TrEMBL record:
One BP term from GO: negative regulation of DNA-templated transcription
Keywords, ordered alphabetically: DNA-binding, Plasmid, Transcription, Transcription regulation
Annotated protein name in UniProt: Helix-turn-helix domain-containing protein
Keyword hit for Transcription regulation: yes
Protein's organism: Natronorubrum aibiense
InterPro entries, per database record: GAF-like_dom_sf, HTH_MetabolicPath_Reg, Tscrpt_reg_IclR_C, Tscrpt_reg_IclR_N, WH-like_DNA-bd_sf, WH_DNA-bd_sf
Length: 255
């Protein structure tokens, strides 16, 4: 029992160090010690182990994460068929409409961005949003996925989200509407200055993820522009779904 507890604490320390390195701009061993409340000697031993394993890089006493994380991130991202089916259609659409498009997949209770297509004139989004998690009940890209999940899963999510009765009833009605309408327009409800439209990507009863167009609200004063973007997203989703049915991406990208 003592050994198990010690191993868990060691793992917690390792992840705390990696997260601190990611948040800081090339911290030193002393700075990490102050952040994590471990002795400098303990931090140093962890750092040397991580460096020897290739997970961090040391330059003049400062540390940063290594590109090993990029390798593993790409491997994980490429394991989702929707990534390969969507990348060409949304990259093309982003160039045509000069707006920000993104692809999401479900990971447990979150919608995680795995690809973005951003034109020069599109809404500026922090690079770190790639790989960022958005709760299924609190984002348009998450809600359109949740709406098409099995009812048992939906109910479990709603129970664990600590919602009051009124908010839960509102969310259930919203999810039902998404199921019927397929698309969800978010006109500043999630972010005050952002207009977005999201749609699920499905083949049969399987939900692969979601696509979303985002833009600055004041750029869409014309209702026709909003309608056109919604229609374009719907067509793009249909193209992605067609590709998922037509091609065996699991077989093409097994490596």
């Amino acid at each position: 029992m003592t050994t198990q507890t010690k191993n868990i604490k060691t793992a917690q320390n390792i992840f705390a160090i990696l997260e601190a390195i990611a948040e800081r701009n090339q911290p030193t061993c002393t700075e990490l010690s102050e952040d994590i409340d471990l002795s400098v000697s303990s931090i140093y031993n962890y750092l040397k182990t991580l460096e020897n394993k290739g997970y961090i890089v040391e330059n003049d006493g400062k540390y940063q994460l290594s590109l090993t994380f990029l390798k593993y991130g790409r491997m994980i991202r490429n394991s989702y068929p929707v990534m390969h089916a969507a990348i060409e259609p949304i990259d093309l659409l982003a160039k045509v409409i000069n707006e920000y498009l993104s692809v999401f997949v479900r990971e447990k209770h979150s919608a995680v961005m795995i690809h973005e297509a951003n034109s020069h004139f599109a809404v500026e989004t922090p690079t770190r949003f790639l790989g960022e998690s958005f709760h299924l009940t609190r984002s348009p890209q998450g809600k359109v996925i949740l709406a098409h999940m099995p009812d048992e899963f939906r109910q479990d999510i709603l129970k664990t989200d600590d919602l009051d009765t009124q908010r839960r009833d509102e969310l259930e009605r919203e999810l039902e509407a998404i199921t019927n309408q397929r698309l969800l327009v978010d006109d500043g409800q999630t972010h005050e200055n952002i207009w977005a439209v999201a749609a699920p990507v499905k083949t049969g009863s399987e939900i692969h993820g979601s696509l979303m167009i985002s833009t600055i609200r004041h750029r869409l004063d014309d209702q026709q522009a909003r309608t056109e973007l919604t229609d374009l997203l719907d067509r793009t989703v249909q193209e992605v779904e067609h590709r998922l049915v037509k091609y065996d991406f699991d077989d093409l990208y097994t490596t």
